[in-house]
Amino acid sequence: MNTDITSQKIKSTSPLLLAIILVATMLCASGCARRKLSRRLMPTPAGIAVGLPHPGGEFDEACQCVGNEIPVFIVSDRKLETKKRSLNPFGTKRSLLPSLGTAYVTIGDGLTPEELHEQTTTDKNRKKAKVVYKRIELAPALENANPWLVKDDVIRHNGNPWVQAVNRQLDRSQRRNVTIFVHGYNTELVDNTLIAGEIFHYLGHQGAMISFEWPSESRLLGYVADKGNADFSTRHFRSLIANVAKECNADSITIIAHSAGSSIVVNALRELRLLEYDLTAQQVQQKYRIDRVVLAAPDMDLMGFFNAIHDRFQDVAGRVAVYASPKDRALGISEKLNGSRRLGRTVNSLEPWEKKILSQASEIELIDASIAVEEYRTFIGHSYFHRDPWVSSDIGGFILGKPPASRSLVKEEGQIFWTFPKDYLERLEQRAALVDNGYR
Fold this sequence. Notes:
There is one protein chain. It contains 18 helices and eleven strands. Helix 7 links the parallel strand 5 and strand 6. The N and C termini lie far apart (64 Å). The chain is of the alpha/beta class. Helix 2 runs antiparallel to helix 13 and helix 9 runs parallel beside helix 11.
């Protein structure tokens, strides 16, 4: 190729387009855009590897399911495309009425239960265990699934096969918890189902896993469109929360959102709080039963997050953990593209008044993941919530309800972010020894 012509083309490219190309390339490289039907099981969370309690328990029962199809329940406002192959019936455009389905994955094909248990609970650099996407079955859509019908307590959908399947899954579990995974930018159904499947594996296959499939363009240059689609999907996610709370027999709901999916979650909870203005914080938590919310590398406008705090979105959420890193290169490009600071990159960049607001929101934990990202270095540093053993370990402790200090995090005087100490692993090992001796 003629380098002079290439140089002229680059110079003629607008700064906005260059920024889009950069952020798309970086987020794609971070693992958001893999187009495979399988992936190796995520690294074992550090706490599990040293023997600390984890939401997945001992994994004995989960690892007996080698080769069995494991359900990941799908709620999607992507438009169905009937001509598409059955493995992924969804396109990239928006649908006014969410579709329901159940996707199935297998974990550890070809391994014995003992081998899968070892792969699950020990620190292996390269896992043999794979998470494999198998198929999806669509279910009838909910009738009268009006997202505004959140304030009443009327049960409308208990006869729907999808709702019944979720409840059967809960009936088979010791923990009646629903976990909802909300993906980030530039993804498709298969990618997100695989991630949801491996998260569900590390929850011990307990409860039910739902993946909320909002309409990502699923292409490198779809960043701007995806951000608009995230705004569009907020109302549908709000409806999902309301319907799960009313229709499903769950004791609690956990939400894990990554990257651009974080704004969907925060804004939906904010809207619920505004709609339920006449309820106290305790009453709204009892109604929606949301126990824990994880915002991992949130690609969300920082001022938008402050607006949500002022509107008391955290009243609905119970406890919120925000994982951020100044080493997140993808969000660094996103800041240039959007012209505003991103919540997932706010470490060391907050103004005094911003620190004051965050410190007063006692329901919100801020965790600086940069040391963990540095220990398990990746070029982009954006998918650490499930690829980094330190961060995934801390998320497990957060879901269990342990406060930051009990999870071996530290916070310097005058700071608002909890951090991972350099001797994090040693601290976990010391805590594991205390657990073995009967201490908690």
